[in-house]
Amino acid sequence: MAELYVTPLSPGRPNYGRAIGALAVALGTPLMPWQRHVAALSTELLPDGSWAYDTIVTTVPRQAGKTTVRAPIALHRCMLRPMGKCWLTAQTRQDARDIVVDDAGPRFNRSPLRRLGKLRKSQGSEGIYFDSGSFWRVYAPAEDALHGKANEIADVDEMWAFDAVQGAELEQAILPTFTTTGGQFTGVSTAGHAGSEWLWSYVLRGRAAVEAGAREGIAYVEHGLPTELADQVLQDLTNHGPGDPEWELAIQLVTEHHPAYGYTVKPRAIRAAAMGKDMRENPAAFLRAYGNVWSDTVETLIPAATWRGLALEHPEREQLPARFGLGLAAGIDRRDAALVAAWRTHTGRPHVRVLAYRDGISWAADQLDAIKRTYPAALAGCAGAGPVLEVADALKAHHRRDVERLKAQDYSTACSTMLSLILDGALAHDGDQDLAASVGAAVKRTMPSGGWAWDRVSAAGSIALLEAATVAVRLFDHGPAQLEAPEVR
Fold first, then answer.
1. pTM for this one?
2. Residue numbers of the domain that contains 20
3. Which of 27, 105, 224, 313 has an alpha carbon 20 to 30 Å from 463's alpha carbon atom?
4. Each residue of 351-409: pLDDT tens digit?
5. Domain edge (last residue) among 279, 299, 319
6. Which of 44, 46, 47, 55 is nearest to 184 (CA)?
């Protein structure tokens, strides 16, 4: 195990590390050494009874046991402080719910702790609630759930996923809630990439605090592959393959520096992860995930190789059917517009095809009207916000045609469905290069409802084609065309 930067325990200071460790055992997940250290460090007390650290940031590789250390810490605080409010957020509300309700929840229900409270799963109140009035709840990063509250812990999972603006917004919601409680901000994350400015600011603060010997304020723990080994490991993973001595040694080094090595993580698991298609094609992503090594570039949400693998060998054989979803989208600053068709083939596989893509948006209403005159059964629509609504308004004014405008929640669901179809290899496309570029530029943004959608502002390029394809798939699956097989014409 490699301790890259670790705030040490302060001799003589009391902490609740042993109590939290006992709770972890009761939950069925005994703590590993690095977790025991975090549990004790984050609960060190000053002589006046206040917490020594108001900020605790931990960065560790994937599969290190982030959830199994944060759960007993949060539950201990709920038991320690009646009416104590502890919160967890993540990239989306669903991600946070997965941690509290689907991971920690069942372990809580199987433990002796279940006599002290109950798990709630209903939307909007997901969490573990104690009879004392304390709770450990989830919230979406864009919600105002924390405003006006007096909180004990506000925890953020995978801080790397938030950029500087999103992180600042979270801080504005979180930090004022500690004024009367002396609460703590905590975050546990894997290393980030060039777009993870918020986490990087805490990494710099934490490393500096460790080097300066600070014993109050921010506590910082970082485990992973040392910098002096990372470059060579990356080269060996890039230039060699499984079975080559260099590749095997690189995997061994990553494994030996993983904080869960010898406990819950086995060498074969790390090796299997490295042999996955996406990781083989992007060794830097593998090192970020399993070596906790920062990446110099913003990683693509959808790997190019994954998208290429969905292209049809003979796209001309898939003729445009009479009925299809027709997605309309416009790029940021009205720079471009796109029209994309989507339908399901006789096998049920979704197929998307670019019908039109040009600069500007003034042409799009006329083009959509022309397509509808040729294919009157096509169901046309767009997202319910952004410059695309100007096209929808022009279509109604000049051609007396309405298009379906997806509500925010429906569009969020459509984006999630589209991403799953792509990553699961369930989608087909014609190999259009502009669509490939749009897919490669995709990034997420968190929705106020707790879901997510494609982010046209932060994207590396225009995502108008991806947005149009996303809407088209949604329209076909949830419109009249879903009831009948497409009729080829």
1. 0.68
2. 3-223
3. 313
4. 999 999 999 999 999 999 999 999 999 999 999 888 899 999 999 999 999 999 999 98
5. 299
6. 55
